[in-house]
Amino acid sequence: MSAAEDRIKEIEAEIKKTQKNKATSHHIGKLKAQIAQLKEKIEKRNSSQQKSEGFLVKKSGDSTAVLLGFPSVGKSSILNYLTNANSKVGAYEFTTLDIVPGIMRYEDAQIQILDIPGIIKGASKGKGKGREILSATRNADLIIMVLDVFQPEHMDVILEEVRNIGVRPNENKPDVKVTKKKMGGMNILSTVELTHLDERTIHSILSEYGTHSADVVIREDVTIDQFIDSLEPNRAYIPMTIVVNKIDLATEEQLMELRKKLPEAMFVSANEGIMMDELKERIFKDLNLMRLYLKPQGKKADMDEPLIIRNHSTIEDVAHKLHRDFVKNFKYAKVWGNSVKFPGQKVGLDHVLEDHDIVRIIIKK
Q1: pLDDT by residue (tens digit) across 57-85?
Q2: Could you tell me if 241 and 143 are in contact, meaning their C-beta atoms sit under 8 angstroms apart?
């Protein structure tokens, strides 16, 4: 164990024995900021030493989802059902040694599904090539956490491991903006009531980052941890779908109890094909995708091959996806659909589109 890891343990022990109240909030914030910086230091050191052989996969399709779980939870069987990727399946641990990609076709979208090797406790610290494996989640558009129906407690372990590498599943980036200044002290503005932070705590955290003069704007009631996350550059905010596999082997009583504990989870059996089509629908929904139809000048819209793009995308996002020069030479766009007041309405780059809109982009000649 390194000196930095030893120090983290010491600080964590100090936080545990510190009574939590308003008077100690600034001290706890300071300690948590120290831990975040030590973890960042360890992350940079490990990243420089890390070899990524066998774990680099070129992204393809309209979006990428990663199957993440312990060994032998049935990730390969799920991949095979979703994509017909023919991933090797075996009833023993560490069957999948490399990342196996497949393409799931659903609702005109082509979604890349990656079956990565199973992780174990301590993966974020390098056990079982864990850091390499977990790194595949950082670039994904969706994490599909796969749990064995008889080992749901692995969920907490997996969440801890991904959080240790800076991934924040099912969280939004905190609405906090810190603009550093050379002088003038701290100017803190909050548009909401803060119930977890006060000015003294904010000062303590920022001082640990070497910031003593800044304009701070906070637009949501963030916790100490969320405020620290807003200061860290390596945080990745990625949606996560929880899938409980092998339900065909469990009793109805066991399943009822699990559904109470995991109300948002999908309960499936890849081997028996139970709820697997519904899982495809859930993946599409959780990826927040929408379909747009492009209308060339003087022609009908192509309703057979939609452009797949993220929900709440703008005309500028579409232009970027079509061609890098479309934004530079953009004149205006015409839109037919729910996002406009009337068919063929002229809109600009900042117009937000909706599912099934028809779009025509006009560029300068």
Answers
A1: 667 788 999 999 999 999 999 999 999 76
A2: yes
- Across the chain, the runs of DSSP E, i.e. the strands, are 63-69, 100-106, 109-115, 142-148, 167-169, 176-180, 186-190, 214-218, 236-238, 240-245, 266-267, 289-294, 307-310, 330-336, 345-347, 358-363
Burial level of 19, CB count in 10 A (0-12/13-18/19+)? Answer: exposed
Q: Please report how many Cα atoms fall inside a 13 Å half-sphere around the Cα of residue 154, on the Cβ side.
A: 23
Task: Report the distance separating Cα 128 and Cα 356, nearest Å.
Answer: 45
Determine the Cα–Cα distance for residues 173 and 191; give it in Å rounded to an integer: 17
86 by Cβ neighbours in 10 Å (0-12 / 13-18 / 19+) ranks as: exposed
Distance CA 39, CA 43 (A): 6
323: tokens are: 């061609």
pLDDT in tens, 154-208: 999 999 999 988 999 999 999 999 999 988 899 999 999 999 999 999 999 999 9
Cα–Cα distance between 277 and 228 in angstroms, integer?
40
Q: What is the pLDDT of residue 88?
A: 55
As a whole number of Å, the CA-based R_g of the chain is 24
Give pLDDT tens digits for 238-254.
999 999 999 999 999 99
d(CA 301, CA 209): 53
Q: Is 256 helix (H, G, I), strand (E, B) or coil?
A: helix
Q: Are strands 109-115 and 167-169 parallel, antiparallel or unpaired?
A: unpaired
What DSSP line would sit under 310-330, residue for residue?
ETT-BHHHHHHHH-THHHHTE
Beta-carbon neighbour count of residue 28 at 10 Å?
A: 19
**What is the 3-state secondary structure of 171-235?**
CCCCCEEEEECCCCCEEEEECCCCCCCCHHHHHHHHHHCCCCCEEEEECCCCCHHHHHHHHCCCC
Query: Are 220 and 192 in contact, with CB atoms under 8 Å apart?
Result: yes
